[in-house]
Amino acid sequence: MGRISNSNRREFLRRLSYAMLSGGTASLLPQLAFMPHAAAQTRGSGYRALVCVYLAGANDSFNWLVPRDSQVTGSRYDSYRQARGGVYSTTNTSGLALGFDDLLEITPSNQTIPYGLHPSCTDFTATNGANTQPHSGLRSLVQQGKAAFVCNTGPLIQPTTRTQYESGVGLPKQLFSHNDQELLWQIGIADANNPAARFGWGARVAKQVAGGPLANGLSPTLSAAGTQRFLIGDQILPYQLAPGGVDLIDNYTPGVTGNNFSQQRRAVLDDLLDDAYSSPFAREYARTISRSLSVGESLATLLNDPGGAGSISTVFPQGNTLADQLAIVARMIKISRNSLSAQRQVFFVRYGSFDLHNGMFAGAGAVATTGHGALLTPLNQALGAFWTALGEISAQSEVTTFTMSDFGRTLSGNGDGSDHAWGGNALVLGGSVDGNKLYGKYPRLALNANDNSAQEWSLARGQYIPTTSADQMAATLARWMGVTDSTALSAMFPLVGNFPSSNLGFMSGV
Amino acid sequence: MSIRTPQKQPSQLARRAWHCLSLLLLGCMFQSSLAIAQEALDGLVIEQGIQPAGSDVIFSGRGAGFETIDLPANDAEAARFLTQATFGPVNADVAQVRTLGFSAWINQQIALPATLQRPALEQQIAAQVQVDPRNAPFYRAFRMERWFATAVVAPDQLRQRVAFALSQMLVISDVGALDNNPLAIAEYNDNLLRRSFGNYRDLLRDVTYSPAMGAYLTHLRNQKTDWALTGGNLVPGLIAPDENYAREVMQLFSIGLVERNRDFSPILIAGQSVPTYTQDIITFTARALTGMNIGCTGPVTIGGVNIPRNCGNCVGPQCNFVTQLFFSNAPRFAVPGIVTALIHPDGYLPMVCYPRYADTGRSATAANGYAVLPAPFERKRLVSGVVIEPSPVACHTATPAIDQQACIVYCHGQVDTLVNTLFNHPNVAPMVARQLIQRLTTSNPSPGYIDRVARAFEDNSSGVRGDLAATVRAVLLDGEARTTPSANFGKLREPILKLSALWRAFAARPGNSGLWGIAVPERTLIQRPLGAQTVFNFYEPDYRQPGELNDAGLYSPEFQILDESSAILASDEFWRRVYSGYSFTNNTTTAFNIPANAAYLPSETIDALPADNAAMVEALNVRLLNGVMSATMRGKLVALLNGALAGTDKRRKALNTIHLIVLSPEFAVQR
Q1: Are B410 and B12 in contact (CB under 8 A)?
Q2: Which residues of A fall within a CB distance of 8 Å from B640?
Q3: What is the full DSSP assignment across A354-388?
Q4: For residues B48-58, average pLDDT
Q5: Contact A268 B637 (CB under 8 A)
Q6: What is the largest CA-CA distance in chain B?
Q7: I want to staple B286 with a disulfide (CB 3.0 to 4.6 A). Which of A125, A296, B243, B608 is the partner?
Q8: Residue A127: beta bridge partners?
Q9: Chain B contacts of A419, Cβ < 8 Å?
Q10: Cα–Cα dist A96/A414, whole Å
Q11: Which among B177, B182, B188 is positioned nearest to B219, based on CA atoms?
Q12: Would you kindly state where each structural domain of chain B is located, as residue ranges?
C-alpha cells in the first residue's frame, strides 16, 4: 500500500468501518484474501525463534543508550545532559542525566561518535544457590557484534514531522497512554482499527511460518507472562509457561491407581470437560482446562526427562523474575527443537514496571543498581544468562531476542523522575543480528527540537517523535523468520509501506 | 455489532455535540463545524456489544424500569442473587432473601455498618511490633488475612462485595511503591467501604486526596513548574508536574478514552470515535494536581506504641507553608535496622495542600512580584471546557498570614474543581454502570441494561447524581439480572470469589492460630485484593478470549487470567483448601485434625452430609451450585460415588465430590 493523503485516508477509514459491519473487508484489502497459507513457501529450513522481552511501563531508554562523544559544550553528550536538567547528584536531585564517566563506552561501527550504555550493562557473575557462572553483559555483547539498537523508534502511521504532529492528523491514537501504546507495539500496526490488527504480530508471523500447532498440540506462540495480544492469532492461542516448568495437575493423574482414586477422578473430570454446555463461557473454560491437561502432560514428560532432554546447566541469576522466564524459554526451545520437531516459534516474556515518574535515581545509591538501575541490572543479567544458555544449546544464531516498551520518556524531569513520551531505543540480540551498530537515527537530544533537515523533532519536554516505526522493526524480524514474500509482508504490516523500507537491515543475510 | 438509530432525546444529542465542540478536540474529526457533528449524530450510531437477550418485552421483566421481580420464586433464585451480591450464598441468607425479597434485603445490607480493615489491622501491627518487629513488607500478610476473613464472615456482605468491585475500578496496589504500607492500603480500602453506598463524587475526592493513591500514581508531593526571571525573561524551570494521576484519573477512574452515550456505545463522528481529552489537557490537569503532601498532626500513641511527629511551631494555616512539611514522610515505629509498617496516621489520612508548591498560575519570583504568568500559562484548561483561573493572591514561602488561607482555599479549590468536572462528565454514568455490572452480574450487559443503571447513577429518583446505593440497586434488581439467564448472560467466576464461595458454603473457620493461611493468593489464584500488578487491574473490561467468545463478540475479562498455568495452579490450590485438616493413609478412612495455620471445612459440616450418595450430591449441589446442577453432571458424580468410591468413608466421598464440583465448568461460570 502506498502513501495515502489525509483526505484519502479519511475516506479509507470511513469505508473500512462500514466494510467491517458488512464483513466485506476482503474487497477493500484483497491482500488479506490472498495471503499465502502454504508455510513451506516462506519458512526456510532449520529452527528459528523470536523472543520478545517486553519492558512494561515505558523504559527510559535515552538513559540506556547515550551519546558519549565528549563533555565540551555543544557535544552530543552535552546536549543530552542539558536537556535532562544536568547530571543527577545529591545536590542536583532533579537532574536525570547520567555522568559521562558512568557510561560504558561502545563504538558502533556505523556511527561517527562513541556512545555509552547505562552502567548496568556490565559483565557479571550469576549466583544460584551454590552455583556460579560468569556471563557477558550487554556492553560486551554489543562489542562482540551480537547486539544492536534500533533508535528513536515507536508507533507511527507515516513519517511525521513536528508540524504534522501539531496538526493532529495522521497520528496514532491515544499517544502517551500505557495500555494503548503497548497494544500498538504488540499488534505491530500503528492503527488498532486496521483489520489485520485483530491479531498480534508475533502470532501473524507464527501463523505464516509455522502454520499451526505441533503434533502434540503445542502452539507456535508461547508466553511466560500470561495472555498477550502479541501472541494471539488466527486459530492460535499462546501456550502459557510457568517459570518452574509446566505445572501438572495434582491428584488427577491419569493411569495412576491406588492414589486416592486419582485415575477415576480424572475420568470423571475428563467427562465433565467433554460435556455440552449452553453457556459459551462454560465451553471455553472446559476447552482451556482440557488443553492445559493434555499439552501440559506431554511437555512435562520432556521437561522433566531424567536424561536431560529438557534441562540446561547454565546458571541463571536467582531472585530475578525475568531470568526465571528466560530460563524456561531456553528449556522450551531445547525440547521444541530437539524433541518436538518445531521449526518456528515466537516467545514473550515481560519485565517491569519501568514507569519511573519518580525514583529514576536513589539518593547516593550506585547508579548501576539503584533507581532505574535496579531494573536495568536484572534486565542485563537475565539477557546475559539467556545468551549463555542459548550457547549451551547451540541456538545463538537461531534465536533473536528483542525489546519492546510502551514508549520512551520525557527528557526533562518532574522533580525526581520522567513522564510519558514517544520514541525510544530498542535492543536486538542474536547471533544473526548484524550487531555493534545503531539502526534508525539517534537524534541530538534537545527539548522542542524542530529540525526538518536533520529529521529531529521533539515536544516541549523532549518527547521525541520517532523516526523509525515500530512496524518497520517488526517487519524486519518477520522477514528473518521467513516472511520474505512481499505481498504477505505488506498484508501483515499494512502501514509499513508508508516508510522507506520494511527491512531496517539489522538481521544478517536478510 | 449492530447498527441502531440513536435513541436519545434531541436535547441529549445536542448536549453531546456541544460537549464535543467545546473541547476543540483534534479528535473531533477533521472539521469542527456544528453541521458535521449534527449530521454524524443524526446518522448511524454503531453500537458495540451484543443484542439484548430475548425479545419478549411483556414477560421479560425487563421493562423501562420499573417492573422488577422482587421475591425469588425458590431457593435457587435466592442463591443466584446472593452469588451476585455477596461472597457466596449461605443457607441463612437464602432464607432471609426469600422472606424479605431482594429489595428489602438490599436495604437491610445498606443499613449495616461497614466492617473496616485499618483500625483492627493497626492494632494488630502495633501489638506485633512490640513482640517481634519486622521490616514493613512482612505485614502485607496481615492485611491479606484480614481481607479474606472479612470477605468470608462479615455481615455487611453487599458492601464488602461492592467495595471489592470498586477496588478493581479505582485501582491501588501493594505491588510496587506501597509494598511496605499495608495500613495506607487498608485505609484506602476503608474509604471504598465507606463510600460503597455513598456518592461517587465523594469517592473520587477521597481517592484523589488519598496519600496511598498519591504514592501509587505519584501525585504525592507533585511540584509545579517554577517560573523565574533569567536575563530579564520569565522562563519555566525544567521540572514539570508529574502527569501520571492526571491521566489515570481520567482514563480509568472517571471518563475513559472516548466519548460515550449513556448505554456505553461510543459516540461516532464520521465513523470515528471521539477522544475525551488530548495530551495538552493532561498537562493542564497535572498542573492542578500539585502541592499535595501528607499533613502533620503531631505525635500519637497507637496500641501502646508512641510515634513521634514534630510539626514545628506552626499554627493553623502557617503549617501549610512550612517547606519541611511538604517534603516530610510519615514516621514509622522503628528499631535499629528495622522499619516497621506501623506508620503514623498522617501516612494514611487525606493529603493537604502546600500552596508554595501548587501551581497557582503565577511566577515563583519575587523580582516580578509573583505576577500572574503570561497567557496561556496562567490558566489550566480541563475537560468540558472548564478553565481554572490563576490565584488572586501570590502563594510562596513568605506569603503573609492575611493571604495564607486564600492560598489554601485556591489549592484545594482547584483539586475540587477537577473532581467535580470529571464527576459531572456524561461519560461517568455509563463507565461506572458498565464496570459495576461486569463485576457483579454479567460480562456482556445489553445496552439497555447499562443505560438503565447509568440513569440510576445520573438521578437516584431524588434528583441526586452519583448515588452508588441507587446504582447498585439498579444493577442487582434489573430484569436482565433477575430473569432466567440467556446463554450469553453471566461471567467466568473470579478465582477469589470461587474460594470465598467454597469457604462460605461450608462455614469454613480459620486454623487454631487464627490464620486462614492466605497470605499470597496471587501465586495460585492470580488475584490479590488491592494487589494487582498494574493500575489496569487483574484483567481489562474489554478483553475478549480468542476463539468462540471473541468470534461471538463477547467480552470475557476474567478469562484474561485463566491459562494452562493458572488453571493447574488453581486446581491444586483448591485441593489443598478442600482437604485442609483432612488426611488419609489408605483408601477407606479419612482422619481430621484442626490445622494450626490454615482455614478448613469443619468436619461436623462434612459429617452431617447425607449418607446416601444421591442425596449427598444434591446437598453439595445446593451449597455450591445454587441447586442447578445439570442431570448429566449429577449422574457422573453419583456414578463415581456408587462405583470407585463405594468403599470409602463419607468424608472421602464428600471431599472428592466437592473438589470435582469446584473444578467443573458449571461452577466456573456464574449465571
Answers
A1: no
A2: 264-265, 268
A3: ---SS-SS-TTS-TTTSTTHHHHHHHHHHHHHHHH
A4: 34
A5: yes
A6: 95
A7: B243
A8: A132
A9: 240, 242-244
A10: 10
A11: B177
A12: 12-50+489-670
User: pLDDT tens digits for B146-189?
Assistant: 999 999 999 999 999 999 999 999 999 999 889 999 999 999 99
Beta bridge partners of A194: none
Half-sphere exposure of B235 (CA within 13 A, CB side): 8
Distance from CA of B352 to the nearest CA of A (A): 19
Q: Is B267 in contact with B274 (CB distance < 8 Å)? A: yes
Residues of B in contact with A251 (CB under 8 A): 572, 575, 659
The model's pLDDT over B169-179, given as tens digits with 9 standing for 90+, comes to 999 999 988 99
Q: How confident is the model at residue B38 (pLDDT cuts 50, 70, 90)?
A: very low
Query: Would you state the pLDDT for residue B88?
Result: 98
Report which of A413, A320, A329, A389 is spatially closest to residue A93, judged by C-alpha positions: A413
Q: Assign 3-state DSSP to chain A and report helix, strand, coil percentages, each to 5.
A: 35, 20, 45
What's the burial of B53, exposed, middle or buried (CB within 10 Å: 0-12/13-18/19+)? buried
List the one residue out of B283, B274, B277 whose CA is nearest residue B246.
B283
Residue of A239, A173, A177, A229 lying closest to A201 (CA atoms): A229
- What is residue A52's three-state secondary structure? strand
List Cα–Cα distances, B306 to B131, B254, B339, B468, in angstroms: 15, 40, 14, 39
**Would you state the cell numbers that stand for residue B453, as one nine-digit string?**
443503571
Cβ atoms within 10 Å, residue B309 = 16
Q: Which three cell numbers stand for residue B614?
A: 444421591
Cell of A215: 503434533
Candidates B565, B613, B659: best to mutate against A (most CBs of A within 10 A) is B565
Query: How much is the pLDDT for B43?
Result: 33
Query: How far is Cα B460 from Cα B470, in angstroms, rounded to an integer?
Result: 6
pLDDT digits 0-9 by tens, B305-358 = 999 999 999 999 999 999 999 999 999 999 999 999 999 999 999 999 999 999
Contact predicate A435/A144, CB 8 Å: yes
What average pLDDT score do residues B480-503 get? 97
ipTM of the complex as predicted: 0.88
Give the best residue of A160, A284, A422 to mutate against chain B (max B CB count within 10 A).
A284
Residue B379, CA distances (Å) to B56, B133, B276, B372, B630 in order = 54, 49, 20, 9, 64
Exposure string for B161-183, b = 16+ CB within 10 A, e = fewer: bbbbbbbbbbbbbbbbbbebbbb
Residue A371 sits at φ, ψ, to 5 deg, of 60, -130
pTM of the full predicted structure?
A: 0.84
- Name B260's bridge partners: B266
